[in-house]
Amino acid sequence: MKTAILGFGVVGSGAFEVLEKAGYEVKRVLDIRPHDELGDKLTANYDDILNDKEISVVAEAIGGLEPAHTFVVKALKAGKHVVSSNKHLICTYYEELHALALENGVTLRFTSSAGGGIPWLYNLKRSVRCDDIYKVMGIMNGTTNFILDAMISDGRDFDDVLSEAQRLGYAEANPSADIDGLDTARKTAISSSIAFNTIIKEENVDIFSLRFIKKADIDYITSKLNKTVRYLGFGVKSEGGASVFVEPALLDSDALESNVRKNNNMISLFGRDVGRLSFFGQGAGKYPTGNALAQDVIDILSGSTELSFAPEAINVDNATLERAYYVRTKADVSYDFFDTVEVIDGSKYITTKKITVSKMHAVAKEIRSLDADAFFAGIEG
Ligand code: HSE
User: Fold this and answer.
1) Which residues does residue 83 pair with via DSSP β-bridges, in sequence order?
2) Contact 201, 208 (CB under 8 A)
3) Is pLDDT of 308 > 70?
């Protein structure tokens, strides 16, 4: 049984090095760019991999939807196991790929699609086997944590820290995916799908962007509310469904998440029997994510069972969970669920009573139509 890697970018080249160093031969690498160091392992023709009977595992590290989707479908149909680090692909095509894997008697694994180098999805899936996982929650995006940590610790501005995160290679090619929450939403959707044995699509996830946070928010949250802020994805099981959302969240300073520094990630599951399990580490990067992709390959080569799951339909309903919120806006608004309101330099700093996630996200749209700079965050606890 040999392996092929699709894409020799950051993650693919990391997985290649990890596998070869551990003694697992990578027979072919698909990439259209020249890579002299790969010699005759390199091919730009996918048929060289599809038609090679010795290659039984295909590791997809191209990213994006096409051509990754077409290549993965062809690999599964050709009876090859597939591992992927591609959250966009898994979020969009999970049902189709899972059905094809079943039909062709092969395995589909995607541990590295959420949490990067952290063996999070793998352990989440193991936990689901014999426990009721009622909540997943965590810091799933390194760029936004890097930004918040630097704003809080060093008093720096949002834009200045974002530029540094881009220089360091943490941010997505289009950093909107990081700071507007789509990256965290996809990882939250995949995590919640596994936790609750269902299919949650990225469009079902309510999102508050982080891009509107200012130094004034950090000052108010720290000095007046005695909290700190992190950017979190949440999946919470409810009666007959689940609430799934991404929000900046205000936390006590001794909360585990509050103490996750720089670009690290930390994701937790909450099980009825096992309680809280938290997984900390690098959520991105050549060797961390390459290592997690390689681990899925090695599991398959060792005959280990698949990560994929047989989904059942459940409702995603953000009207089933209530929490309190923090709002900063210049808009002239007042709602009956506002609790405290303080005006500083023309801006209202508001905390709310508990209201449903869906109501707050609907109200946030109204407020944002009056004040494009308004900032919203959930309050934990
Ligand atoms: N841009 C992502 C992050 C990379 O900052 O975590 C991993 O998905």
Assistant:
1) 59, 109
2) no
3) no
pLDDT bracket for residue 172 (50, 70, 90) = confident
Task: Report pLDDT for 171.
Answer: 84
The pLDDT, as a whole number, for residue 145 is 97
Tens digit of pLDDT for each residue in 41-60? 999 999 999 999 999 999 99
Instruction: Report the 10 Å Cβ neighbour count for 37.
Output: 10
Whose tokens are 């000052």? That residue is: 219
Whose alpha carbon is nearest atom 4 of ligand 1? 284
DSSP helix, strand, coil percent of the chain (3-state; round to 5): 40, 25, 35
Which atom of ligand 1 has the smallest separation from the CA of 141?
Answer: 6
Pocket test for ligand 1, best of 84, 87, 183, 267 (most atoms within 8 A of CB): 183
| Global confidence as pTM | 0.96
Say if CB 225 and CB 354 are below 8 A apart. no
Q: Whose CA is nearest to atom 8 of ligand 1?
A: 284
Mutate to test the pocket of ligand 1, among 113, 170, 180, 231 (most ligand atoms within 8 A of CB): 170
- Beta sheet of 81-84, edge-to-edge order: 42-43, 26-30, 2-6, 55-60, 81-84, 108-109
CB within 8 A of 15, min separation 6: which ones? 5, 59, 61, 289, 290, 291, 293, 294, 297
**Ligand 1 midpoint to CA 8 (Å):** 18
Q: Which residues contact 263 (CB under 8 A, 6 or more apart)?
A: 142, 143, 145, 146, 165, 168, 170, 282, 283, 284
Bridge partners (DSSP) listed for residue 323: 355
Instruction: Give residue 189's identity as a one-letter amino acid code.
Output: A
pLDDT in tens, 6-53: 999 999 999 999 999 999 999 999 999 999 999 999 999 999 999 999
